[in-house]
Amino acid sequence: MTDDAADDGLRLTRSALAAESPLTSDDALESWLRERAVAHDFDVTLSALSELDGWFFEPEYGDLVHRSGRFFSIEGLRVNVGESGWDQPIINQPETGILGILVKEFDGVLHCLMQAKMEPGNVNVIQLSPTVQATHSNYTGVHGGQPTPYVEYFRAPRPGRVLVDTLQSEQGSWFLRKRNRNIVVETTEDVPEHEDYRWLTLGQVLRLLTVDNAVNMDARTVLSCMPFAAPPESEAEDGYRAALRRSIDHSPGRHSTQEVLGLLTEQRVLQRHVQRRIPLGQVAGWDCSDMEITHEDGRYFRIVGAHVKAANREVGRWSQPLLEPRGPEVSAFLTKEFDGVLHLLARARTEAGSLAGAELAPTVQCSPGDRRGLPSPPYLEEVLAATGDRVRYDSTQSEEGGRFYHAQNRYLIVEAGEDTPADAPDGFLWITVGQAMDLLKHGNYLNVQARSLIAALHTTW
Amino acid sequence: MTDDAADDGLRLTRSALAAESPLTSDDALESWLRERAVAHDFDVTLSALSELDGWFFEPEYGDLVHRSGRFFSIEGLRVNVGESGWDQPIINQPETGILGILVKEFDGVLHCLMQAKMEPGNVNVIQLSPTVQATHSNYTGVHGGQPTPYVEYFRAPRPGRVLVDTLQSEQGSWFLRKRNRNIVVETTEDVPEHEDYRWLTLGQVLRLLTVDNAVNMDARTVLSCMPFAAPPESEAEDGYRAALRRSIDHSPGRHSTQEVLGLLTEQRVLQRHVQRRIPLGQVAGWDCSDMEITHEDGRYFRIVGAHVKAANREVGRWSQPLLEPRGPEVSAFLTKEFDGVLHLLARARTEAGSLAGAELAPTVQCSPGDRRGLPSPPYLEEVLAATGDRVRYDSTQSEEGGRFYHAQNRYLIVEAGEDTPADAPDGFLWITVGQAMDLLKHGNYLNVQARSLIAALHTTW
Hints:
- The structure is a homodimer of 461-residue chains.
- Chain A is an alpha+beta fold.
- Chain A has 10 helices and 24 strands.
- The first copy, chain A, has helices spanning 3-17, 26-39, 136-139, 202-208, 217-224, 239-248, 257-270, 380-385, 433-439, 448-457, and strands spanning 42-47, 55-57, 64-66, 73-81, 84-92, 97-106, 109-118, 126-129, 132-134, 161-169, 179-186, 197-201, 273-278, 286-288, 293-295, 301-310, 317-325, 330-338, 341-349, 359-361, 364-366, 391-398, 408-415, 428-432.
- Chain A starts with a helix and ends with a helix.
- The mean pLDDT of chain A is 94.
């Protein structure tokens, strides 16, 4: 680690531990959030797919596409993972968007310029978002809309210093090989604060992360990539906090990083992954109609249409398909101390749309509704049965409201019980938080659910 | 770096510097190579694609496929990279093969178990290959052939200690998203030495790497992933060698590793990469006949058929398509010292079949024949004009003879002239050898041509 990187980690940690911002008091933050929710006059109406302006099923493959040939499309995919195989619809958006947080020091404390952003699929009006959250079509003006504020800080040649810059995956079960650019840039310039934007400390952002549906997925994934240093030792800290400190601080874990990479390579080979594009109309087990695209047994998700009217977006009114999951997912990391160092139990998981094969996912990641009639996945019951202090984080968070409709998942961080075996079963792996943070310098190692939980972990100090 | 990793680096370096093996003298090595070339009774005859046993153009997409549905296929691809776009045929082999080298200490010196292997596309009979070089179909016996010797050392649960285990890309211009597992395993067991295999020091292997077409591509890529330590300081060393030592030793370079990763992310976004499978018959600019698949202007490559008869392979006789490049490629790294540390000028390069977008490629990577009528790419003339001591490596090496027919490329490592600007143009980047080796712990950062040159760099000590 260079000195600069170590210094960045300490400054991020100081900001995360900050009591209150000198710029935006907690009271001011609350009233701003309430006020923006009211100001965002918007309206979402679900509709038949055939009624979406500009969208149609193209004749050759039956894909649901936009007449511009841009944005995204709904396509058919035939997937094999190891010995399993299935067909499904999938969102193909071969664009790399920007998820960028601008940071700046005020009174010696780093602040993040966060946005109150409305997305059509949100269960609530607005959620806290990165400074810039824009697809390539957005920020290059394909929509013909207003320019994306602050995007100049994230496109080369940019003023400021880059703290994080990496392409990270998004939901592999719903997106085909999707990646977005997670980027954090520090500026020393004067930056105007538009009405939808506020400078907040990381402490303020992390406190909101313990509230349901307040910080959006895009902000959570960027937070997860930030190279926090270990918080200072405190006299009052319990064993969990001491173990977390050592884990963030790169104390040696059960496996060397070389072993972690080797075990993931092993799983990428074992979970042999083959993707084949097929016509949407030939996707076995799914019905594709003018109304919606839906699974025969009502599992997994459906694709519906939405008409959106919004005042504070680049474009004021538009139509688009949205993916509506059938039920909430549970994503949970079990934690355990080994030699006084906190470890997370990660699972190598290959999803339909994965770009590079298996990524490290939470211990549990499943939608219980989709699994009716099937045995519970490992550790689900242990996670749901945990009570009291063992539950370090338990919150419902939303997935990307620009593509998903009312996608709310429950996220948990739970200390494993005394009798949870130290030996990880095949495909599972105990890693330290420091190792997870090192892997997050690269893309396609931790999936987006695992990254939401890494961000959440920083609320458990 | 853990102590184990540092120790591995030193042991690899000691083996690379070893004068002669206590097991296999240089004379014995030479006579073994001559003897194996004679013993390998094999014969390759080119043929029309329509005459290949078991291969046919399937009616739906026009892909050239095998009747088993396994092995590989030739498909059509429509590609966009930034503002450019083109169609081309591409090899799709959605399998991860094993390129594995078994190592063992004899008299305190690490030895590699290397294979004398015949491949149908080789210009010569045999080349030095990894202990195991096998596709998934090979080593799981889909061919119905003989078992792959030594494969048990590379499949879990394996005896021995893993030194390297990573999925690396292969030719992105010819393969669709191809990766092979590059793996090095150390054993302390007694290992029988079959007649096609010999224990060699890395010094012996590297000396063969200065000979044309002696060490195959698969061996070169595994060698490039080995975590060598810096060789010891010697009194006689010149400035180049001293700078190389510091570079391998992770002396700070012009850019931090965070900056290197950020610059590559930037290029991955700028070189926006979209791949779309299209029917082989619709590939613009290419002719697809019963005889061959060929470019209208005779550029790039053609796909031809081959009948193969070989005594020492899992299967003794078979037919397959091979890709024959039209002309040799030149791949070269320019090097330059900054503050006494050797740097390589890498270029971020997106190829048709790239899995994750741009990878770091050599300074120059081009096929002059394909570029007739076009301006020379940057640095080509400087590389070809260099003479004397500035040329640190200059050798013709073969690409994978299992898929490519007579694919011989010229590889060079050349010290930049005094007047080569220190500032890298857009898309180029000065990196240290230590940084390249750190990146090689991960896949899809250095392309296969760059990796061949990293292996070659270890011959320039």
